[in-house]
From TrEMBL:
InterPro entries: CB, DNA_brk_join_enz, Integrase-like_cat_sf, Integrase_catalytic, Integrase_recombinase_N, Integrase_SAM-like_N, Recomb_XerD, Tyrosine_recombinase_XerC/XerD. The lineage of its organism: Bacteria, Bacillati, Actinomycetota, Actinomycetes, Actinomycetales. Gene3D superfamilies: 1.10.150.130, Intergrase catalytic core. This is Tyrosine recombinase XerC. It is found in: Cytoplasm. Site-specific tyrosine recombinase, which acts by catalyzing the cutting and rejoining of the recombining DNA molecules. The XerC-XerD complex is essential to convert dimers of the bacterial chromosome into monomers to permit their segregation at cell division. It also contributes to the segregational stability of plasmids. It comes from Scrofimicrobium canadense. The active site is at residues 151, 177, 249, 252, 275, 284. Keywords: Cell cycle, Cell division, Chromosome partition, Cytoplasm, DNA integration, DNA recombination, DNA-binding. Belongs to the 'phage' integrase family. XerD subfamily. Belongs to the 'phage' integrase family. XerC subfamily. Residues 111-297 form the Tyr recombinase domain. One of its GO terms (biological process) is DNA transposition. Residues 2-90 form the Core-binding (CB) domain.
C-alpha cells in the first residue's frame, strides 16, 4: 500500500494548506490514519477501493477491544478522520466509493456517575476548613457546591447579589446551560460557611484587587478560575485521605445521589440540577446494591429479614 501512504500524506497536506487545520488536529489525524493504514495492511487490503463497509465496521469495533482499547471519544475522533479521508479520496478521484459513509461508531457503555458516600463527603468538607482567608473561602466553596449541586461554571460566575431570602430559606440564582436560570435552596451548613467567608475572608481577598462583584475571589482579588476550583477540591481530597478521583462534578453527582437515596423524586432532582431532560437525571436512579437491598428489606412485604 505504498501509494495509499502517499495519499494519506497528501490528505494531511490538504488539511494543513487548504483547510488551515491546527497542529493538534493534524497530529491526531495522522496518528489515526496511520493506525488505520496498518490495520488494513494486516487485513490483506491492497487498495483503498478494497475497503468495504463491513471491513471498516470490523476495524472500528476492534478499537474497543484488545489490551489497550480506545476511549469512546478517541474512537469517534478516529472515525471522523477516516470519514474525512475517504471523502477526500472520492473528491480527488483516487477511489470509486466511500465505505465510511454509513459506518457508525459503537455506542459507549453507560458510565455511572462517581459519587462520594455521605461519610466521604463530610470528610472532604471538613478537610477544606481552616483559619485564614484561603481556607475559609475554600470551605464555603465546597459547602456551596455540595449544597446546591451546581456546576463549577455556575459557581465561579456567581455574584454576591445572587442570594435571596424567602422566609427562613435562602436560595441562590444559578445561571445554567443555555442561559437558563434556576433557584436552588442553600442549606444551613453552606450558609454558615458563606457568612464566615463574606465577613472574615472575602474583604481581605477583595482588598488585593481592584474590586469585583464575583462571589469567590482568588488571592489577587480577581474571580476564582475553574482550574483553581479543581485544585482546591483535589487538595482537600488528598488531606481527607480519599483515594478515588474527586472533581467539582463529583460533588454534583454526590448531591444528586444523596437526594435520591434520601427520598427525593427524579423530577425534583432534575429541577435542582437544571437538566433539560429527565433522561439525563435518571442515570442517578441506579443506586448502589447496598441501598437497593435496604429499600427492598424495608419496603417489600415478603422480603427476607
Amino acid at each position: 500500500m505504498k501509494e495509499e501512504l502517499q495519499y494519506i500524506d497528501w490528505f494531511i497536506d490538504d488539511l494543513r494548506v487548504v483547510k488551515g487545520a491546527s497542529n493538534h488536529t493534524l497530529s491526531n489525524y495522522s496518528r489515526d490514519l496511520e493506525r488505520y493504514r496498518e490495520a488494513m495492511i494486516a487485513a490483506g487490503i491492497h487498495h483503498w477501493n478494497d475497503v468495504t463497509d463491513a471491513v471498516l465496521e470490523t476495524y472500528i469495533n476492534s478499537l474497543t477491544q484488545g489490551e489497550r482499547p480506545l476511549a469512546a471519544s478517541s474512537i469517534a475522533r478516529s472515525l471522523a478522520a477516516i470519514r474525512s479521508f475517504h471523502r477526500w479520496l472520492r473528491k480527488e478521484n483516487l477511489s470509486s466509493a466511500n465505505p465510511a459513509q454509513h459506518v457508525r461508531a459503537p455506542k459507549p457503555g453507560l458510565r455511572l456517575p462517581k459519587a462520594l458516600t455521605v461519610a466521604e463527603t463530610e470528610e472532604l468538607l471538613m478537610a477544606a476548613r481552616g483559619e485564614g482567608a484561603r481556607p475559609i473561602r475554600d470551605a464555603a466553596l465546597l459547602e456551596l457546591l455540595y449544597a446546591t449541586g451546581a456546576r463549577v461554571s455556575e459557581v465561579v460566575s456567581l455574584s454576591v447579589d445572587d442570594f435571596y431570602e424567602y422566609g427562613d430559606i435562602t436560595v441562590v440564582r444559578l445561571l445554567g446551560k443555555g442561559g437558563k436560570e434556576r433557584m436552588v435552596p442553600v442549606g444551613k451548613y453552606a450558609m454558615e460557611a458563606l457568612d464566615a467567608y463574606l465577613t472574615r475572608s472575602r474583604p481581605t481577598l477583595a482588598a488585593a484587587g481592584k474590586g469585583t462583584h464575583y462571589l469567590f475571589l482568588n488571592l489577587r482579588g480577581g474571580v476564582l478560575s475553574r482550574q483553581s476550583v479543581w485544585e482546591i477540591i483535589r487538595k482537600a481530597a488528598e488531606r481527607a485521605g480519599i483515594t478515588k478521583e474527586v472533581s467539582p462534578h463529583t460533588l454534583r453527582h454526590s448531591f444528586a445521589t444523596h437526594l435520591l437515596e434520601g427520598g427525593a423524586s427524579v423530577r425534583e432532582v432534575q429541577e435542582l440540577l437544571g437538566h433539560a431532560s429527565v433522561t439525563t437525571t435518571q442515570v442517578y436512579t441506579r443506586l448502589s446494591p447496598q441501598t437497593l437491598q435496604e429499600v427492598y428489606r424495608s419496603s417489600h412485604p415478603r422480603a427476607l429479614t
